[in-house]
Amino acid sequence: MARRLVTCNPQYLALHEVSAEELATDPTITGINRILTARGVQASLPDGTPVALEDLVPRRLAGPQRVEMRFPSGRVLEMRSNPIPMGGFATIHMDVTEQRATQSQLLHAQKLETVGQLTGGIAHDFNNILAVIIGNLNILARELSASPALKARAERGLAAASRAAGLINRLLTFSRRQRLAPENVDLNGLVRGMLDLLQSSLGSGVRITPDLATDLPRVRVDPGQLENA
Predict the structure, then answer these.
(1) Whole-angstrom Cα distance, residue 57 to residue 76?
(2) Where would I find the beta strands (DSSP E) of 39-173?
(3) Pairing between strand 76-83 and 183-185?
(4) How far apart are CA 195 and CA 188, in angstroms?
(5) pLDDT-derived band of residue 1, with 50, 70 and 90 as boundaries?
(6) DSSP letters along 79-140, please?
(7) How confident is the model at residue 220 (pLDDT cuts 50, 70, 90)?
(8) Are 88 and 3 in contact (CB under 8 A)?
(9) What b-and-e string marks burial along 139-174, b requiring 16 or more CB atoms within 10 Å of the CB?
(10) Beta bridge partners of 50
(11) DSSP code for 48
(12) pTM score > 0.70 for this model?
């Protein structure tokens, strides 16, 4: 049995992106769903389970239903249906596009916060490990003064560990686990110090060529925060 759309307000056409002519040609729910399916509209239950549009009619006749319809245009339409005693069902349609976008942004922000907390915890542990490594390499470099070749190796290891410690401090600043420490910063020196990090992050397919102005005054700022910016 074809279920006809008995009555609706003018906003129904706008929400479903259906013209009055299309509705007049086939005013059945099946016909409308056929048009929406052809246009790529997808429906899902509150738990995210996909459901075919042609299956919505028997569901709404059987009992209360809440369904979301997502349009290719980005519109998200929530439909809340209840069967009525004389047969058929009544449905409230709500445009929840902005609400869903806000929820998505909030979820993304929560994920970033979690990543920041995880980064801060790991970076803090590595910082402690590097402190031990750097301390021992300093002692080793001093004790190897009689062996220039071995001392040079220890100093190269110390330089690498110091660079790693600098990266860890940047991660700690990024995760807001480190207090701000403003100082007079040489902007050109700060940029040059970041080039190796940027180059390794961007990969061999990208070449960085700095174009720095000369005679820049020092600025009072936290260098880690400026690097993040």
Answers:
(1) 19
(2) 42-44, 50-51, 65-70, 76-83, 89-95
(3) unpaired
(4) 11
(5) low
(6) EEEEE-TTSSEEEEEEE-HHHHHHHHHHHHHHHHHHHHHHHHHHHHHHHHHHHHHHHHHHHH
(7) very high
(8) yes
(9) ebbeebeeeeeebeebeebbeebeebbbebbbbbbb
(10) 44
(11) S
(12) no
210 SS3 class: coil
Are the C-beta atoms of residues 173 and 222 closer than 8 Å to each other? yes
pLDDT band at 6 (very low <50, low <70, confident <90, very high): confident
Instruction: Record the tokens describing residue 14, joined without a space.
Output: 């706008």
Percent share of the chain, pLDDT over 70: 93
Q: Once rounded to an integer, what is the mean pLDDT over residues 159-173? A: 77
Do 222 and 180 touch, CB atoms closer than 8 A? Answer: yes
- Tell me the backbone φ, ψ of residue 6, rounded to 5 degrees: -75, -45
CA torsion through residues 88, 90, 93, 99, sign: negative
CB 174 within 8 A of CB 164: no
Distance CA 92, CA 121 (A): 48
Q: How high is the mean pLDDT of the chain?
A: 82
Tell me the H-state helices in 144-222. Answer: 148-174, 187-202
Residues sharing a CB contact under 8 Å with residue 6, sequence separation 6 or more, in sequence order: 88
- CB atoms under 10 Å from CB of 55, counted, come to 12
CA nearest neighbour of 60 among 77, 79, 82: 82
Please report where in the chains the tokens 């209840």 appear, as a residue: 82
Q: Which amino acid is at 110?
A: Q
Report d(CA 10, CA 119) in Å as an integer. Answer: 52
Q: Are 168 and 126 in contact (CB under 8 A)?
A: yes
Give the Cα separation of 9 and 51 in Å (integer): 26
